[in-house]
Amino acid sequence: MGTHPDRSTALLTDRYELTMLHATLADGRASRRSVFEMFTRRLSGGRRYGVVAGTGRILEAIADFRFGDDEVRFLRDSGVIDATTAAWLADFRFGGDIWGYPEGELYFPGSPVLVVEGTFAECVVLETMVLSILNHDSAIATAGARMIASAGDRPCIEMGSRRTHEDAAVAAARAAYIAGFAATSNLEAGRTYGIPTTGTAAHAFTLVHDTEREAFEAQIAALGSDTTLLVDTYDIAEGVRNAIAAGGTGLGAVRLDSGDLAQVAAEVRAQLDGLGATSTRITVTSDLDEHAIAALAVAPIDGYGVGTSLVTGSGVPTSGFVYKLVAREDDGGTMVPVAKKSKDKISVGGRKYAVRRRENDVATAEVIGIGEPPATDHDDRELLVPLVRDGVLQDLGTLGDARARRHAALHELPATGLRLSKGDPAIPTQYEER
Amino acid sequence: MGTHPDRSTALLTDRYELTMLHATLADGRASRRSVFEMFTRRLSGGRRYGVVAGTGRILEAIADFRFGDDEVRFLRDSGVIDATTAAWLADFRFGGDIWGYPEGELYFPGSPVLVVEGTFAECVVLETMVLSILNHDSAIATAGARMIASAGDRPCIEMGSRRTHEDAAVAAARAAYIAGFAATSNLEAGRTYGIPTTGTAAHAFTLVHDTEREAFEAQIAALGSDTTLLVDTYDIAEGVRNAIAAGGTGLGAVRLDSGDLAQVAAEVRAQLDGLGATSTRITVTSDLDEHAIAALAVAPIDGYGVGTSLVTGSGVPTSGFVYKLVAREDDGGTMVPVAKKSKDKISVGGRKYAVRRRENDVATAEVIGIGEPPATDHDDRELLVPLVRDGVLQDLGTLGDARARRHAALHELPATGLRLSKGDPAIPTQYEER
């Protein structure tokens, strides 16, 4: 199920995918068996690891990637394709194989996160769409995982919908959930993906009432005393008094959205305790990122709401994945490795296989076999799983499985791999060619 | 017309909008006449101006903002709303008034880019969605306008779809077109918004062929000799020779996607001229942003393709717009200004009006009247236009109109306002309260 079930995804693509299709259908190269791989050349922003997210959305999008009458007519009318290509597209259905890192798994430079095999034609037309999804969703999941690591046992809530494109917001909530966020503010993410949703009130709610006390009483009447009251519309100390007066010492939580959060949280904790509201929680929001969360570790805070920096990737808004042809058939039917020969954009030709090498349950390297699987005389964990076989989507498990996978994979890293500071990847990438 | 016409947009929102609705329907405040305004507190990243984009998409999204059976059932089943709220939502249709800056117009700190007036209930439920759209689209348009200013007379093409969420990509192409981009690679943007699309071939196209020469001949056979050949898969000088051998001296263009673009472009220009291909253009792509484009001004380049940095806002991926209640009815029916009193998040209460003040056709200030229009004894240009009247969408003109508006508004700025460096807004914001 996606957010817009009736729409073909086939035009969510760059025009050149279809002009390449057109030209290779004409000269016969369209049918050459090909392997495309998706990988990053580096981890942008000095990140120590990346978190894979979006694979499940890619499979949904491939299922909806059909060229109906409307799509074909548009392409013909705008001169993008010829009649032969139009006929090919009308029958198009991806019939190849896809392997990939499952969602929640970590990736490093060169990791073959998606391996797509089929004819050149059926693989090339997917390029733009699969890149869009993986580049976006993995950027959010990676930023989110850093925040979760900073937050320790304190729950984090995704609330960035208003800071990103309205549909990207739904995907961002999904990626954040994979990263370990406890809930989202986004209702469509709740409907589409079953992610828990939360939300209580904004400053406007207080301001539309004649007094803060009246607003708090109205919220408690509607949502019960376990709700979270936003106490910083006017004066925070007065807001806390009004909150406990309205909700009693059993009030669920208060939320702070401005000021020096560490200092204010300490003052509010003391005030709540003094009023007898010792179990009333304090949640904070206001331009938080992984660094701000880390700096608040010693403050008496019970949960974080994160918006802008999460949905914009906290400085790395896109993951840098590319989708490259690494092998294709020759006239004799033999698969040959291929690669662009640019100095500044290195690609390694040949089909890849990947394992995470471990010693004493600690990851030591991302080992990538070129042309065949790496030697397996170590405590290696296989990373590529079948996602599509002969065009048939495989079962990927639940988002809960992806959350658990992310948790386990992060805790397998050497301790230095969890650092927030910029630096080298947590483990090196090693290529093996037997 | 949108990219997914059959989908309600009503759940593209934060849960708290609906809990606020629920609580105010219960205590009667939902019906208070209210004014919400969308503005930014600052221009992030030291930008000199912002470019408004997304207004047209907001109006489409409001038209689709209906709570059908599926939406209401989800909200009831998840405990977000009660029966009274469910009944209200089933009948919901925005019936208020909206004024706003038209697309392509510039904005500055405090500019009331959208002014929404109606009952508290009907205004508050729109908050998340309108913020999502304007925050995203304006970030792209602002980055794009800086690139266009750097490119001078050379055309720029938007080709960032693969670097952002697949639906955000369509909106990004639209925003870039408003900013002055000549075309997009994104086919759905072509279909949905009528934006010109372009695209020829990637490195994979060359690699799937046995030789570069064979690939170029196939492309020319399919697309004609006015096409653009990508010449950097192997050796660039050899690629240029192959390109002219295949396409003749009337070849449309060659594309460079790697290396030191200034140096390589100079070498390729000399080689093309030496081969007699004096009218063959050179287009460049490869991690360009406004600064890289400015640095290439003296290189013999005929056009730019921009991807990552455009669709991610070139360092400013979201615009920082907030949506704040600034006035609401009291029990006597009088509209009273309201504002949050936080030290670090300043809001100015009261309904705003805005003009761009000019002297000798040069903009000198963004003048914002509080509660009533600014005094008009100057060469002022009105900035707010009616977008919705009593729930009826107004005609906003075409994307071409928005492009022309952006062009005119930028050229009205003082010369220092077009600087790429970080600094103060191009013109100051002045509040007037008579």
TrEMBL record, chains A, B:
Q: What is its EC number?
A: 6.3.4.21
**So what family is this one in?**
Belongs to the NAPRTase family.
Its cellular-component GO annotations read: cytosol
Q: Is Phosphoprotein tagged as a keyword? A: yes
Q: Which UniProt keywords apply?
A: Glycosyltransferase, Ligase, Phosphoprotein, Pyridine nucleotide biosynthesis, Transferase
Biological process GO terms, please?
Answer: NAD+ biosynthetic process via the salvage pathway
Q: Where is the Nicotinate phosphoribosyltransferase N-terminal domain?
A: 11-135
Q: Name one GO molecular function term.
A: glycosyltransferase activity
Quote the protein name from its UniProt record.
Nicotinate phosphoribosyltransferase
Q: Which pathway is it part of?
A: Cofactor biosynthesis; NAD(+) biosynthesis; nicotinate D-ribonucleotide from nicotinate: step 1/1
Q: Name one Pfam family in it.
A: NAPRTase_N
Lineage per the UniProt record: Bacteria, Bacillati, Actinomycetota, Actinomycetes, Propionibacteriales
* Record NCBIfam families: NAPRTase_put (TIGR01513), PRK09243.1-5 (NF006698), PRK12484.1 (NF009131)
Q: Which SUPFAM superfamilies match?
A: Nicotinate/Quinolinate PRTase C-terminal domain-like, Nicotinate/Quinolinate PRTase N-terminal domain-like
